[in-house]
């Protein structure tokens, strides 16, 4: 055998070995998924067995054994409270079923996306059931918001925390112990349960006399070390079920992987709970990715232009940055461009952080520029945009961070700025984490995708079937020209360049590699940015790989030949790169997709009023711009709303005098549509009402608010 033949065969064997390795990896992944499913089915079976086949599991893909969507004795009372106390016109997905399960005395696990409406699921049964409901929540700020909101609705809610006055504490303990005074919902931090013997003993007395109505554990993923916000005190909450086994316990969280779910059911001792898993889909969020300019100032120009153009009325937003220093810099540069922005990160003292958070929550600051530290505890429902100055470290974190937009259900935008140069910055931070690089490359794939629906990536990640995006992402909304270019020879050249470099015991960073390629003649027919994209794509496809080296100050990322590199060298793979064509994707936003609300004068005025009332009365008002606001809110705010409408109607009338009848009619119908979209938030357009409004313009919203009397 000639040496050349031997070498050739050796190469072939190596390639085949790599292919086998790929298949093994895929099979290991499948094995892990099947194991998870196996233990899921086993625990469901156990629950069924020990529960004599009664209600067991609902939602989580296992199928409902007991139906909580039927009719129940408390239906009429529940409807009344939903509408006339909470001012909510209809339930969202799973809310009614969850309420019914709690009312039936079951333990319940709720997994529902951010802003999905988890609070109503325990607050409504708390009102319907006799006695006091205990709610455990991890942060003081979250508790304060909730108590303020409930108080404004006339619901007797209190909190027992370090900030509670002696007087309130006395009142709460009396209510628990003796049933005196009006108390329906009591919020505490987990520390109260695990550290205050006095509190637990009062709670026992409350339970003993049959007055503990339910226990809700909010942000329940904090129980699990596998979750993203582990709180040691959450681990002790299991004692609540041990002490009060007959009291329905409801655990609520926005995201929980299977591991976290198992963990928290175990910790909270609710193995037989009914589980409701809602979709991860956030239909009101418009997802988009933009090419990030390589010059820092240009990125800020674009961000500022985006905010000014789409949100000129001080609508709230968040900008996420990679580092603390970057936060400070970006906030300053946004301010230089006339945008009211401030930064928030873990290096600041608690007081300073609270101040910034407060100013932003009250609408005095438009934009908060934060690191990932700006996370749980953001209870602001009307965040209209979340911008990522750099990519997140995984699809999961991106889902959570971008998910802080639009918790009130109104259209909101999630914009991510991506450039290949940001990948090594992230990878050198996450490479030591379990699956850190894998997770990062998933989101890189999301960023580089120029055709596929962005939602598809989320559904894939959370193992959910695909749902229609309704044009709510850049790739679905715009059929932009994307050219598929064959870059096989460029890829080959990159791999062989790296081969030479490695032979000489040298290393290249991604940028050095791109520079080297650009200096070669071959690189000249694709631009530098495209070459960067190609290198990243080759890394994601494992043709190249990243290697890391620690210095005294940092960890550097270098590019090396990956598992499938040789296949490219042998000409066995065809590599394609998607390149955006002529049209400018940059200027495209939800607005240009015509998905956003049309701002009419009246809508702006009403929104200002909403903000003012929300500020005074504690953030209770966002959903009240919906079709029906319920008796309580009509009584409280109806007058002010009507006043505002009358003013606008007068203004419009005089305006209309100057317009031809036709134009006036057209404008009115557009405003009507805007109002319909705005007030209903979730796209349920009532055509009859719209028609009515078109006829009698002055009575525009009178019709809406007077529904109760109709
Ligand atoms: N059925 C409904 N119709 C309209 N609005 C609703 C409905 N249910 C809840 N909301 C509103 O949706 C917003 C978000 O609700 P909530 O705070 O309960 O969300 P959440 O699921 O707890 O989110 P997070 O995980 O971020 O805490 C609130 O403004 C709430 O009033
Ligand atoms: Mg919540």
UniProtKB/TrEMBL annotation:
Its EC number(s): 5.6.2.4
One GO CC annotation: chromosome
InterPro entries cross-referenced by the UniProt entry: DEAD/DEAH_box_helicase_dom, DNA_helicase_ATP-dep_RecQ, Helicase_ATP-bd, Helicase_C-like, P-loop_NTPase, RecQ_Zn-bd, WH-like_DNA-bd_sf
Official protein name in the record: ATP-dependent DNA helicase
Domain spans labelled Helicase C-terminal: 299-448
Location within or outside the cell: Nucleus
GO biological process: double-strand break repair via homologous recombination
UniProt domain Helicase ATP-binding: residue ranges: 99-274
């Amino acid at each position: 055998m000639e040496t050349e033949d031997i070498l050739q065969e050796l190469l072939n064997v190596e390639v085949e070995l790599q292919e086998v390795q790929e298949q093994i990896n895929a099979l290991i992944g499948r094995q892990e998924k099947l194991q998870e499913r196996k233990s899921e089915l086993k625990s469901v079976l156990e629950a069924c067995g020990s529960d004599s086949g009664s209600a067991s599991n609902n939602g989580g893909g296992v199928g409902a054994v007991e139906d909580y969507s039927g009719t129940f004795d408390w239906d009429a009372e529940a409807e009344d409270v939903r509408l006339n106390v909470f001012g909510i016109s209809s339930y969202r997905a799973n809310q009614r079923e969850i309420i019914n399960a709690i009312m039936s005395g079951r333990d319940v696990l709720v997994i529902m996306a951010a802003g999905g409406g988890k609070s109503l699921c325990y607050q409504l049964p708390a009102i319907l059931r006799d006695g006091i409901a205990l709610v455990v929540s991890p942060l003081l700020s979250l508790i304060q918001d909730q108590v303020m909101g409930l108080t404004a609705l006339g619901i007797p809610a209190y909190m027992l925390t370090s900030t509670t006055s002696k007087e309130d504490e006395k009142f709460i303990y009396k209510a628990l112990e003796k049933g005196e005074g009006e108390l329906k919902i009591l919020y505490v931090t987990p520390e109260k349960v695990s550290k205050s013997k006095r509190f637990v003993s009062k709670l026992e007395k409350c339970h003993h006399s049959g007055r503990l109505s339910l226990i809700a554990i909010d942000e329940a993923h904090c129980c699990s070390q596998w979750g993203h916000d582990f709180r040691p005190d959450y681990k002790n909450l299991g004692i609540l079920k041990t002490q009060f086994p007959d009291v329905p316990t409801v655990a609520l969280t926005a995201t929980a992987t299977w591991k976290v779910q198992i963990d928290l059911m175990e910790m909270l001792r609710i193995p037989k709970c009914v589980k409701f898993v809602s979709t991860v889909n956030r239909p009101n969020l418009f997802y988009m990715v933009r090419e990030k300019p390589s010059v820092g100032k240009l990125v800020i120009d674009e961000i500022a232009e985006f905010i000014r153009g789409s949100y000129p009325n001080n609508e709230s937003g968040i900008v996420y940055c990679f580092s603390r220093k970057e936060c400070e810099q970006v906030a300053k540069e946004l301010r230089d461009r006339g945008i009211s922005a401030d930064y928030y990160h873990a290096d600041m003292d608690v007081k300073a952080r609270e101040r910034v958070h407060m100013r932003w929550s009250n609408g005095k600051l438009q934009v908060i520029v934060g690191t990932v530290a700006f996370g749980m505890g953001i209870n602001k429902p009307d965040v209209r945009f979340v911008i990522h100055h750099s990519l997140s470290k995984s699809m999961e974190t991106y889902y959570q961070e971008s998910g802080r937009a639009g918790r009130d259900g109104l259209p909101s935008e999630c914009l991510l700025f991506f450039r290949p140069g940001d990948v090594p910055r992230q990878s050198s931070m996450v490479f030591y984490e379990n699956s850190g690089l894998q997770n990062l490359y998933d989101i890189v794939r999301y960023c580089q995708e120029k055709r596929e629906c962005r939602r598809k990536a989320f559904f894939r990640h959370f193992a959910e079937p695909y749902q229609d995006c309704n044009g709510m992402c850049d790739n679905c909304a715009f059929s932009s020209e994307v050219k598929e270019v064959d870059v096989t020879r460029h890829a080959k050249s990159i791999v062989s360049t790296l081969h030479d470099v490695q032979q000489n015991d040298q290393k290249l960073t991604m940028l050095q590699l791109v520079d080297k390629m650009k200096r070669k003649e071959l690189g000249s027919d694709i631009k530098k940015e495209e070459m960067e994209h190609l290198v990243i794509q080759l890394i994601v496809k494992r043709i190249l790989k990243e290697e890391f080296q620690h210095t005294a100050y940092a960890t550097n990322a270098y590019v090396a030949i990956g598992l499938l590199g040789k296949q490219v060298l042998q000409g066995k793979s065809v590599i394609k790169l998607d390149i955006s064509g002529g049209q400018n994707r940059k200027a495209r936003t939800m607005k240009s997709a015509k998905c956003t609300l049309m701002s009419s004068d009246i809508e702006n005025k009403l929104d200002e009023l909403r903000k003012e009332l929300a500020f005074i009365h504690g953030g209770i008002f966002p959903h009240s711009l919906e079709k029906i606001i319920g008796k309580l809110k009509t009584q409280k705010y109806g007058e002010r709303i009507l006043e505002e409408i009358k003013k606008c109607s007068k203004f419009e009338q005089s305006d209309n005098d100057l317009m031809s009848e036709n134009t006036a009619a057209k404008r009115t119908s557009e405003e009507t549509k805007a109002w319909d979209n705005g007030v209903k938030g979730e796209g349920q357009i009532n055509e009859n009402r719209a028609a009515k409004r078109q006829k009698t313009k002055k009575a525009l919203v009178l019709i809406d608010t007077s529904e109760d009397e109709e």
